[in-house]
Amino acid sequence: MNLLFLGDVVGSSGCAAVRRCLPQLKRQYSIDLTVVNGENSADGNGIHPVSAQSLLDSGADVITTGNHALRRSEIYDWLDRSDSPILRPANMHHTTPGRGLCTFDLLRCQVAVINLMGNAYMDQCGNFFDAADELLSQIDAPVVVIDFHGEATSEKLALAHYLDGRASLLAGTHTHVQTADEQIFPKGLGYITDLGMCGPEGSVLGIKPELAIRKMRGNLPVRFENALTPSCVSGIVASIDEKTGKTTKIHRVFMK
């Protein structure tokens, strides 16, 4: 099977870029399943029912999130639906709305998608190693895909080594900068430290540069606004053996 995984979508311009590029990417790479991180898809931050529906209408099958998953209370009912294709990190507190695991049925095989969040420099959450072990014990699917939303490269690499042979793909999100370290681990785990961003180029992680500079330079409160420059789409395509669950090919994608 061929899986397309797109990085953090930033605002309405990022949603528009996904809507513009996703159909072509799916045709070009004969995509069977598309996962998109939508935690910043609402203008401002967070994910809203409108931005979520936009990504689903564009062709996303599963939407993952991260530390901004719960910023908009309007999305809580969507997260709580038993058939919801929208995930929040599984190692958030158990009282928060939603879940961190879903299974997508491709008829010829099932694909489990897990959403986890790192511990370093992030909102307080449970240990991601323990959360991964618990979720994997519940899964009876040959293909397991993980969105690991985190700041620290070391955490992402450590979890990848820990799960090699037990998961098919671990893709990092959150930093909005696409890394050039896509690889396949010895036991078949596909990996990239960060998928990058679906959002405005010429920005600071999607934000107008002058606002980011003002915040960092003067350390004064600044209301961030998304940049108005043309948006790009970035992520990876992974080919995964449906029987063994091992990744056989992985490469980055980038489209304007």
Structure explained in plain terms:
This protein is α/β, with parallel strands linked by helices. The chain has one domain (2-255): Metallo-dependent phosphatases (Purple Acid Phosphatase, chain A, domain 2, 4-Layer Sandwich). 25% of the residues lie in helices and 27% in strands. The protein has 6 helices and 13 strands. The protein has helices at 11-28, 49-58, 76-80, 128-136, 153-163, 209-218, and strands at 2-6, 8-9, 33-37, 62-64, 101-105, 110-117, 143-149, 169-173, 183-184, 190-192, 197-200, 231-240, 247-255. The strands form 2 sheets. Strands 1, 2, 3, 4, 11, 12 and 13 form a 7-stranded mixed sheet that branches. A 6-stranded mixed sheet has the order 5-6-7-8-10-9, with helices on one face. A hairpin with a 4-residue loop joins strand 5 (101-105) and strand 6. Helix 1 runs parallel beside helix 2. The radius of gyration is 17 Å and the shape is globular. The chain starts with a strand and ends with a strand. The model has no long low-confidence stretch (mean pLDDT 96).
Fill in the CATH topology: Purple Acid Phosphatase, chain A, domain 2
Give the amount of beta strand, in percent: 25-35%
Spell out the helices and strands N to C.
Answer: EEHEHEHEEHEHEEEEHEE
CATH architecture: 4-Layer Sandwich
The gyration radius over C-alpha positions equals: 17 Å
Tell me the CATH superfamily. Metallo-dependent phosphatases
How many DSSP H or I helices? Answer: 6
Low-confidence stretches: none
* Outline: globular
Give the integer mean of the pLDDT values: 96
Helix content: 10-25%
Class derived from helix and strand content:
alpha/beta
Would you state the CATH class? Alpha Beta
Q: Separation of termini?
A: 25 Å
| Number of separate domains | 1
Number of strands: 13
Largest sheet: 7 strands, mixed
